[in-house]
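seq as requested:
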Amino acid sequence: IVFMLLFFFMVATVLRTEDEKVQVTKPEASELYKVEKKHLIRYVNIGTPMDTRYGTEPVIQLNDQFSQPEEIQEWIVKERETLAESEQSKMWVSLKVDKETKMGIVTDVKQELRKATALKVLYSATSRARTGEEE
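struct tokens:
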């Protein structure tokens, strides 16, 4: 029984294999939502590269590589195929965007996500206290 349980957890455990290659300082937000089924989330990182060889302008990171906005549709198709057929329509895309990034590149990414019919989009943020509340 112990070996069966050990085998089950070895098979069922998902390890994070993606290395962040861009610097992302998440913006702050007061209204946050925590997603329960994290295996349905695919991450798009947008920020300045950590390695200055790649420049100082914000870039898009899909999985472990830098990409152009035009590659997002193909990436979405591949990521959907990694999910069970019943969960493919439930896939979320989480945008981890550095707070200093201009909206132009974010708009380009959002347009490509629309073309790929990836309409469930999350924005990653850190928590902050709500302000302006009356007691």
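The mean pLDDT is 87.
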